[in-house]
Amino acid sequence: MPRTSSSTARPVPRRALADHVFDELLSWLMDGTLTAGSSLNIDGIARDLDVSPTPVREALARLEATGMVRRVALRGYFVTPAPTTKELTDLMDARLAVEPANAYYACERGDEEFLAGLEEAVAELESSPNGPTYQEFRDYWEADERFHALVAQAADNSYLQAAFAALGGLAQRFRQFSGKGVTDKAVAVEEHRAILDAMRSGVPERAQELMRRHIEGVRARSLSERDEPAPPPSA
Protein backbone atom coordinates (compact mmCIF):
# COMPACT_ATOMS: atom_id res chain seq x y z
CA MET A 1 0.00 0.00 0.00
CA PRO A 2 1.40 3.47 -0.84
CA ARG A 3 2.76 5.43 2.08
CA THR A 4 2.72 9.18 2.48
CA SER A 5 5.40 10.55 4.75
CA SER A 6 3.94 12.83 7.42
CA SER A 7 6.93 15.14 7.02
CA THR A 8 6.26 15.74 3.32
CA ALA A 9 2.50 15.37 3.00
CA ARG A 10 0.71 18.58 2.16
CA PRO A 11 -1.98 19.59 4.66
CA VAL A 12 -5.50 18.91 3.47
CA PRO A 13 -8.21 21.48 4.26
CA ARG A 14 -10.59 20.09 6.86
CA ARG A 15 -13.64 20.52 4.65
CA ALA A 16 -12.00 18.49 1.85
CA LEU A 17 -10.47 15.76 4.00
CA ALA A 18 -13.13 13.11 3.49
CA ASP A 19 -13.14 13.65 -0.28
CA HIS A 20 -9.34 13.52 -0.35
CA VAL A 21 -9.29 10.14 1.41
CA PHE A 22 -12.05 8.81 -0.86
CA ASP A 23 -10.15 9.92 -3.97
CA GLU A 24 -6.92 8.33 -2.77
CA LEU A 25 -8.60 5.00 -2.00
CA LEU A 26 -10.48 5.06 -5.28
CA SER A 27 -7.22 5.64 -7.15
CA TRP A 28 -5.56 2.71 -5.36
CA LEU A 29 -8.52 0.48 -6.18
CA MET A 30 -8.72 1.50 -9.83
CA ASP A 31 -4.98 1.10 -10.42
CA GLY A 32 -4.83 -2.29 -8.72
CA THR A 33 -2.66 -1.16 -5.81
CA LEU A 34 -5.35 -2.68 -3.59
CA THR A 35 -5.99 -6.12 -5.03
CA ALA A 36 -9.14 -8.23 -4.97
CA GLY A 37 -9.65 -9.94 -1.64
CA SER A 38 -7.09 -7.86 0.24
CA SER A 39 -8.02 -6.57 3.68
CA LEU A 40 -8.28 -2.84 4.36
CA ASN A 41 -6.94 -1.82 7.72
CA ILE A 42 -8.48 1.48 8.78
CA ASP A 43 -5.69 2.46 11.14
CA GLY A 44 -3.03 1.52 8.59
CA ILE A 45 -4.69 3.56 5.84
CA ALA A 46 -5.04 6.49 8.23
CA ARG A 47 -1.29 6.37 8.92
CA ASP A 48 -0.49 6.12 5.21
CA LEU A 49 -2.58 9.19 4.45
CA ASP A 50 -1.61 11.06 7.62
CA VAL A 51 -5.24 11.46 8.71
CA SER A 52 -7.40 10.25 11.56
CA PRO A 53 -9.42 7.02 11.18
CA THR A 54 -12.72 8.92 10.89
CA PRO A 55 -12.43 10.08 7.25
CA VAL A 56 -11.12 6.63 6.33
CA ARG A 57 -14.25 5.02 7.76
CA GLU A 58 -16.40 7.54 5.87
CA ALA A 59 -14.57 6.84 2.61
CA LEU A 60 -14.87 3.07 3.01
CA ALA A 61 -18.60 3.40 3.69
CA ARG A 62 -18.97 5.36 0.44
CA LEU A 63 -16.94 2.77 -1.45
CA GLU A 64 -19.03 -0.04 0.01
CA ALA A 65 -22.07 1.52 -1.70
CA THR A 66 -20.31 1.10 -5.06
CA GLY A 67 -19.58 -2.57 -4.43
CA MET A 68 -15.83 -1.98 -4.70
CA VAL A 69 -15.25 -2.93 -1.06
CA ARG A 70 -17.30 -4.96 1.37
CA ARG A 71 -17.56 -5.05 5.13
CA VAL A 72 -17.49 -8.40 6.91
CA ALA A 73 -18.82 -8.51 10.46
CA LEU A 74 -16.03 -8.68 13.06
CA ARG A 75 -13.38 -8.73 10.31
CA GLY A 76 -13.55 -5.29 8.71
CA TYR A 77 -13.35 -4.18 5.09
CA PHE A 78 -12.03 -6.12 2.09
CA VAL A 79 -11.62 -5.38 -1.62
CA THR A 80 -14.37 -7.25 -3.44
CA PRO A 81 -13.59 -9.98 -5.99
CA ALA A 82 -13.77 -9.20 -9.69
CA PRO A 83 -17.38 -9.14 -10.90
CA THR A 84 -18.75 -12.10 -12.78
CA THR A 85 -20.09 -11.96 -16.32
CA LYS A 86 -23.60 -12.47 -14.97
CA GLU A 87 -23.20 -9.50 -12.63
CA LEU A 88 -22.07 -7.33 -15.54
CA THR A 89 -24.95 -8.49 -17.73
CA ASP A 90 -27.47 -7.96 -14.93
CA LEU A 91 -26.20 -4.43 -14.33
CA MET A 92 -26.45 -3.54 -18.01
CA ASP A 93 -29.96 -5.01 -18.19
CA ALA A 94 -30.93 -2.80 -15.26
CA ARG A 95 -29.40 0.24 -16.96
CA LEU A 96 -31.42 -0.61 -20.07
CA ALA A 97 -34.57 -0.52 -17.94
CA VAL A 98 -33.76 2.89 -16.43
CA GLU A 99 -31.65 5.07 -18.71
CA PRO A 100 -33.69 5.00 -21.94
CA ALA A 101 -36.69 6.09 -19.85
CA ASN A 102 -34.57 8.89 -18.37
CA ALA A 103 -33.61 9.97 -21.89
CA TYR A 104 -37.26 10.04 -23.00
CA TYR A 105 -38.37 12.32 -20.18
CA ALA A 106 -35.22 14.45 -20.28
CA CYS A 107 -35.91 15.18 -23.94
CA GLU A 108 -39.42 16.32 -23.01
CA ARG A 109 -38.44 18.33 -19.93
CA GLY A 110 -34.84 19.48 -20.38
CA ASP A 111 -34.12 23.16 -20.96
CA GLU A 112 -31.31 25.07 -22.68
CA GLU A 113 -29.15 24.88 -19.58
CA PHE A 114 -29.49 21.10 -19.64
CA LEU A 115 -28.46 20.95 -23.31
CA ALA A 116 -25.48 23.20 -22.62
CA GLY A 117 -24.40 20.88 -19.81
CA LEU A 118 -24.60 17.87 -22.12
CA GLU A 119 -22.57 19.72 -24.76
CA GLU A 120 -19.88 20.52 -22.20
CA ALA A 121 -19.74 16.90 -21.05
CA VAL A 122 -19.36 15.63 -24.62
CA ALA A 123 -16.62 18.19 -25.30
CA GLU A 124 -14.75 16.93 -22.23
CA LEU A 125 -15.17 13.33 -23.38
CA GLU A 126 -13.57 14.28 -26.68
CA SER A 127 -10.64 16.17 -25.13
CA SER A 128 -9.86 13.96 -22.12
CA PRO A 129 -6.95 11.51 -22.16
CA ASN A 130 -7.79 7.82 -21.98
CA GLY A 131 -4.67 5.96 -20.89
CA PRO A 132 -4.70 2.74 -18.86
CA THR A 133 -4.20 4.29 -15.41
CA TYR A 134 -6.90 5.90 -13.32
CA GLN A 135 -5.16 9.27 -13.31
CA GLU A 136 -5.11 9.17 -17.13
CA PHE A 137 -8.77 8.28 -17.68
CA ARG A 138 -10.28 9.92 -14.61
CA ASP A 139 -11.44 13.09 -16.43
CA TYR A 140 -13.00 11.01 -19.21
CA TRP A 141 -14.80 8.83 -16.69
CA GLU A 142 -16.12 11.83 -14.75
CA ALA A 143 -17.41 13.48 -17.94
CA ASP A 144 -19.19 10.26 -18.89
CA GLU A 145 -20.78 10.01 -15.45
CA ARG A 146 -21.84 13.66 -15.57
CA PHE A 147 -23.52 13.23 -18.98
CA HIS A 148 -25.71 10.39 -17.72
CA ALA A 149 -26.39 12.13 -14.41
CA LEU A 150 -27.57 15.27 -16.23
CA VAL A 151 -30.01 13.17 -18.25
CA ALA A 152 -31.32 11.52 -15.06
CA GLN A 153 -31.72 14.91 -13.38
CA ALA A 154 -33.52 16.48 -16.35
CA ALA A 155 -35.95 13.53 -16.47
CA ASP A 156 -37.32 14.97 -13.21
CA ASN A 157 -38.57 11.65 -11.84
CA SER A 158 -37.38 11.00 -8.30
CA TYR A 159 -37.84 7.24 -8.55
CA LEU A 160 -35.92 6.90 -11.80
CA GLN A 161 -33.22 9.18 -10.45
CA ALA A 162 -32.84 7.03 -7.31
CA ALA A 163 -32.56 3.90 -9.44
CA PHE A 164 -29.98 5.58 -11.68
CA ALA A 165 -27.92 6.73 -8.68
CA ALA A 166 -27.74 3.18 -7.33
CA LEU A 167 -26.74 1.72 -10.70
CA GLY A 168 -24.21 4.44 -11.45
CA GLY A 169 -22.32 3.74 -8.26
CA LEU A 170 -22.19 0.01 -8.98
CA ALA A 171 -20.80 0.66 -12.48
CA GLN A 172 -17.53 1.79 -10.90
CA ARG A 173 -16.79 -1.76 -9.81
CA PHE A 174 -16.69 -3.03 -13.38
CA ARG A 175 -14.19 -0.36 -14.42
CA GLN A 176 -12.10 -1.29 -11.38
CA PHE A 177 -11.05 -4.65 -12.81
CA SER A 178 -10.84 -3.92 -16.55
CA GLY A 179 -7.15 -3.02 -16.35
CA LYS A 180 -7.32 -1.48 -19.82
CA GLY A 181 -8.46 2.07 -19.25
CA VAL A 182 -10.79 3.49 -21.90
CA THR A 183 -10.70 1.37 -25.05
CA ASP A 184 -13.86 2.59 -26.80
CA LYS A 185 -13.45 6.37 -26.68
CA ALA A 186 -14.14 7.13 -30.36
CA VAL A 187 -17.37 5.14 -30.60
CA ALA A 188 -18.56 6.18 -27.12
CA VAL A 189 -18.09 9.86 -27.91
CA GLU A 190 -20.05 9.37 -31.15
CA GLU A 191 -22.86 7.69 -29.22
CA HIS A 192 -23.03 10.48 -26.65
CA ARG A 193 -23.02 13.09 -29.42
CA ALA A 194 -25.93 11.30 -31.13
CA ILE A 195 -27.93 11.32 -27.89
CA LEU A 196 -27.24 15.05 -27.49
CA ASP A 197 -28.43 15.71 -31.05
CA ALA A 198 -31.60 13.73 -30.33
CA MET A 199 -32.21 15.79 -27.20
CA ARG A 200 -31.90 18.95 -29.27
CA SER A 201 -34.36 17.56 -31.83
CA GLY A 202 -37.09 17.38 -29.20
CA VAL A 203 -38.19 13.88 -30.26
CA PRO A 204 -38.31 11.80 -27.04
CA GLU A 205 -38.62 8.48 -28.84
CA ARG A 206 -35.39 9.18 -30.72
CA ALA A 207 -33.51 10.10 -27.55
CA GLN A 208 -34.82 6.95 -25.86
CA GLU A 209 -33.76 4.72 -28.74
CA LEU A 210 -30.25 6.19 -28.99
CA MET A 211 -29.70 5.84 -25.25
CA ARG A 212 -30.78 2.20 -25.52
CA ARG A 213 -28.32 1.62 -28.35
CA HIS A 214 -25.56 3.28 -26.35
CA ILE A 215 -26.10 1.09 -23.27
CA GLU A 216 -26.28 -2.01 -25.44
CA GLY A 217 -23.02 -0.93 -27.08
CA VAL A 218 -21.35 -0.49 -23.70
CA ARG A 219 -22.55 -3.95 -22.68
CA ALA A 220 -21.25 -5.56 -25.87
CA ARG A 221 -17.87 -3.84 -25.62
CA SER A 222 -17.51 -4.72 -21.93
CA LEU A 223 -18.21 -8.38 -22.61
CA SER A 224 -15.86 -8.27 -25.59
CA GLU A 225 -13.00 -7.31 -23.27
CA ARG A 226 -13.71 -10.56 -21.43
CA ASP A 227 -13.47 -12.49 -24.71
CA GLU A 228 -17.07 -13.58 -24.31
CA PRO A 229 -19.93 -13.14 -26.78
CA ALA A 230 -22.46 -10.43 -26.08
CA PRO A 231 -26.03 -11.55 -25.41
CA PRO A 232 -28.58 -10.76 -28.12
CA PRO A 233 -29.92 -7.18 -28.08
CA SER A 234 -33.03 -6.53 -26.06
CA ALA A 235 -36.29 -6.55 -27.99
Task: Describe, in plain words, how this protein is organized in 3D.
The chain is mainly alpha-helical and 235 residues long. The chain has helices at 17-30, 42-49, 53-66, 85-109, 112-127, 134-155, 158-176, 185-201, 204-224; strands at residues 39-40, 69-72, 76-79. Residues 4-9 have low confidence and may be disordered.
Q: How many strands appear in the DSSP assignment?
A: 3
Relative helix content: 55-70%
Shape label:
elongated
Strand order of the largest sheet: 1-3-2
Q: Stretches where pLDDT falls below 50 for ≥5 residues?
A: 4-9
| Structural class determined from secondary elements | mainly alpha
Mean pLDDT: 87
Q: Major sheet: size, sense and barrel closure?
A: 3 strands, antiparallel
Beta-strand share of residues: under 5%
Q: How many helical stretches?
A: 9
| Order of secondary-structure elements | HEHHEEHHHHHH
Structural key phrases:
single chain, 235 residues, mainly alpha, 3 strands
Condensed summary:
With 235 residues, the protein is mostly helical. It is 66% helix and 4% strand.
